[in-house]
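Schema walkthrough. Field components (list of strings):
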Amino acid sequence: MKYIESTQNKQIKEHAKLLQKKERDRSGLFLVEGHHMIEEAIAANCLKEIYLLEGEDNFTDLEPIFCSQQVINKLSSQNSNAKIIGVCTKPDIQPEKFDVVLLLDGIQDPGNVGTILRSAYAFGVDYVYLSKDCADIYNPKTLQSSQGAIFHIGTMNTDLYDTIRFLQIENTTIYATSLHEPYKNLQDVKPKLPYGLVLGNEGKGIRQDILNICDMSIKIEMDTFESLNVATACSICLYTLKHAS
Amino acid sequence: MKYIESTQNKQIKEHAKLLQKKERDRSGLFLVEGHHMIEEAIAANCLKEIYLLEGEDNFTDLEPIFCSQQVINKLSSQNSNAKIIGVCTKPDIQPEKFDVVLLLDGIQDPGNVGTILRSAYAFGVDYVYLSKDCADIYNPKTLQSSQGAIFHIGTMNTDLYDTIRFLQIENTTIYATSLHEPYKNLQDVKPKLPYGLVLGNEGKGIRQDILNICDMSIKIEMDTFESLNVATACSICLYTLKHAS
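Field assembly_structure (string):
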């Protein structure tokens, strides 16, 4: 049985660096926490290593490294005491089709990006493109909000402008969610496959140069002049467009 | 000009207690942060006191108390340096009608409760009932996610079972969002006013005794066996039911 007690252990110090985006980018690895995420990582064949709190039962086929609570805490992003941490390789998911794609422009809150990925998976989105200034999908908060969707849906950090131009050549209609005129009300949009949906930054919305090349703007009808949370707006559009197409 | 430099100031120590639910419940007061929330509080006639970081411009008609950054930080729930904090009385909002009501059963994440209130206000919900184990609507995280909706929409902490029984006597149809059979797909529900929508706890869903007395269960159609974030599910239902009624 392998056991690590000290937070000064070299391997632990290396893996704790994965809490930082820079190290995740460099290594291609990331950390997951909790029973559900570990099971998702195993199913996706992405789990490399398991750190398990001493005394806990191992529910996987892998041989875990048992650790003191201090070691687990050093690898955990949460305040509460975690019990299991996994080291994963980033999944490489190739979609069968590109009928419905999402494009996220500068969405900076990890919780929002995670909730969007969760909804995208639930509603059968084929692929998600993220501008390079979006929250990292392997950020622990993003992973937590995504509930493991990251192991099921293909994603890519990319230049959104070029991607939209490419998709349009491939006959994909690009819808922008925007409060700027001219727009169509969501209830009046009857999309044909393939289509893409662009969501913008929480405060500033979609960048003007990207908005300019979208084929149509969509507005979610509201009773007030208020706005919606971006993950909420995304999910309403995905669900409604799916049932209108 | 009033100025407070020390975090040991008696008034500051008293108002800092408002970061705790117990003190908010006792006093009927709560704290808000930031330009947008202060404006909402003023518009709702709920603002009692403003603490403004020294050197900042006062954009309100009230006389602020200028404070050191340390004092502002003591009143703030955020890590980043806040600049303005308001002390508010809890709003008392009486709706004109009860055509569409929300009922939240044990929703414990403050961000979820806030996002639900934000969507409820955007989609013209008349009133929101919350079970007593929901996150406090005056929790700083709830307020932040609600984007000030709390100043526009009436809410009450209540016994949901009794409330549902009362609403049903008043001819309100009560829909539960639930994955348990029997259910109707959301696309097939054609609600008549007045109606209520029940949302359940993030992990456990709606309590069985409450589920038992609801008139119908609604399922949001999904491609996978995954679930949605509760605020996402709520918002999709509110938007879709509104356009189906």
